């Protein structure tokens, strides 16, 4: 899932942040009819298309409407009941869904022009004291954070903690008062076919939008380059780029998923639709509860686990024929003062195994670190200048690792 990236030069653009939107139609109710008389109704719909000077068209629709006999009021249909239940869910949860604005550091383009941009995503108020759950990729690298409440009020936000790259989640803090938290639910109770409601921030106006769907699959492992996202929830709700950080709600209005990504192509490159993925709430709950209690993510860190900014997967196509390794990750940055730096890890090192387990496409460095027992040293197999060495690193939690 990408957040919406709006460059202040040249207007909105689709990139690490595009956010197209969809609109859901209303549901109808069948009415019993008697065959005594049929009336004709002519309606007109005027459609104005103001794109490229194209004129609109007048469409006339002729509808056959049966006369309805006077019958006792029928009991509400299942469709009406579902619609009413969803409306109640939305009414309860809507105030707790917010827009997250992440102003990125200004940059200069090839022509020397200054470019300012921001990521736009969604967030969920999970504590009335001011804690907001969102995706890490929405806020990563931000110079300034702002949260827009469902009322339109803007509040400055600060970074609290994250669990990236193991889980694409981050927690922010805004000033408390006037906030309504959304209850967290049990994602393990979901079954394929259960109804879901997705609420996320709207584009431009930041007014929240609602999408409906069902549980397509549960407990999915979704492989991405360099990491396998685990225990994901799949839905056919109309999730799009920019809905990142939105809430997936069960039929009790509880958050059971954090909208994270949408799949547009299968492995063969063919287009697919209706494949939205969210982190299951239970997979995040331990970290969320710990941060609520202490303000710190207790997960131990090495200082080289950030995918893309601290390490990158080895490109096997560029390895020489006599390479002593066939897979692994190249270290591109080491956090200053981190356990990895203390252990002697350097930029340019290639890590090929964790605790004796080789790094592979379906066993990435990130996932091997994630299952390493807490409180124990991590043994890394490292190649430097063509020579293999064993390096022992003693991870520790980081209060504000970004």
What does this structure look like?
The chain has 402 residues and is mainly beta. Among the domains are: 187-281, Trypsin-like serine proteases (Thrombin, subunit H, Beta Barrel), CATH 2.40.10.10; 300-397, PDZ domain (Pdz3 Domain, Roll), CATH 2.30.42.10. 11% of the residues lie in helices and 37% in strands. A hairpin with a 3-residue loop joins strand 7 and strand 8 (131-134).
> What proportion strand?
35-45%
Which superfamily, in CATH terms, is the homologous superfamily of the domain at 300-397? PDZ domain
Structural class: mainly beta
Order of helices and strands: EEEHEEEEEHEEEEEEEEEHEEEHEEHEEE
State the CATH class of the domain at 300-397.
Mainly Beta
Indicate the mean pLDDT. Answer: 82
Q: How many beta-strand segments?
A: 25
- What topology, given as strand order, has the largest sheet? 4-7-8-11-10-9
Low-confidence stretches: 7-71
Shape, principal axes of CA atoms: globular
By CATH, the architecture of the domain at 300-397 is named Roll
CATH topology of the domain at 300-397: Pdz3 Domain
| Rounded radius of gyration (Å) | 25 Å
Number of helices: 5
Distance between the termini: 19 Å
Largest sheet: 6 strands, antiparallel, barrel
Range of helix content: 10-25%
Features:
402 residues, Thrombin, subunit H, Pdz3 Domain, six-stranded antiparallel beta barrel, six-stranded antiparallel β-barrel, 5 helices, globular
């Amino acid at each position: 899932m990408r957040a919406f990236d709006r460059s202040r030069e040249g207007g909105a653009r689709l990139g690490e942040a595009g956010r197209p939107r969809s609109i859901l139609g209303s549901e109808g109710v069948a009415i019993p009819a008697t065959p005594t008389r049929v009336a004709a109704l002519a309606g007109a719909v005027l459609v104005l298309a103001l794109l490229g000077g194209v004129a609109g068209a007048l469409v006339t629709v002729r509808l056959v409407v049966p006369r309805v006999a006077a019958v006792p009021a029928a009991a509400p249909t299942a469709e009406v009941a579902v619609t009413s239940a969803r409306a109640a869910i939305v009414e309860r949860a809507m105030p707790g869904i917010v827009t997250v604005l992440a102003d990125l550091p200004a940059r200069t383009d090839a022509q020397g022009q200054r470019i300012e941009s921001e990521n736009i995503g969604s967030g969920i108020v999970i504590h009335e004291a001011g804690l907001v759950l969102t995706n890490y990729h929405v806020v990563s690298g931000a110079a300034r954070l702002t949260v827009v409440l469902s009322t339109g009020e803007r509040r400055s936000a600060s970074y609290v903690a994250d669990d990236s790259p193991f889980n694409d989640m981050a927690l922010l803090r805004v000033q408390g008062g006037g906030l309504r938290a959304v209850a967290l639910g049990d994602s393990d109770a979901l079954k394929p076919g259960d109804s879901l409601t997705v609420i996320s921030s709207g584009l431009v106006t930041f007014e929240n939008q609602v999408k409906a769907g069902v549980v397509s699959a549960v407990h999915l492992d979704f492989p991405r380059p360099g990491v396998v996202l685990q225990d994901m929830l799949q839905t056919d709700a109309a999730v799009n780029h920019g809905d990142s950080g939105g809430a997936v709600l069960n039929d009790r209005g509880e958050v059971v998923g954090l909208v994270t990504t949408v799949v547009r192509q299968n492995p063969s490159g063919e287009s697919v639709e209706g494949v939205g993925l969210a982190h299951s709430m239970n997979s995040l709950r331990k970290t969320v509860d710990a941060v609520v209690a202490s303000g710190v993510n207790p997960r131990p860190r090495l200082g080289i686990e950030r995918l893309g900014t601290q390490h990158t997967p080895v490109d096997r196509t560029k390895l020489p024929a006599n390479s002593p390794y066939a897979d692994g990750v190249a270290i591109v940055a080491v956090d200053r003062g981190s356990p990895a730096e203390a252990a002697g890890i350097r930029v340019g090192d290639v890590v090929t195994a964790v605790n004796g387990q080789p790094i592979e496409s379906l066993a990435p460095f990130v996932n091997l670190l994630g299952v390493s027992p807490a409180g124990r040293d991590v043994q890394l197999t490292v190649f430097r200048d063509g020579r293999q060495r064993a390096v022992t690193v003693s991870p520790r939690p980081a209060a504000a690792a970004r």
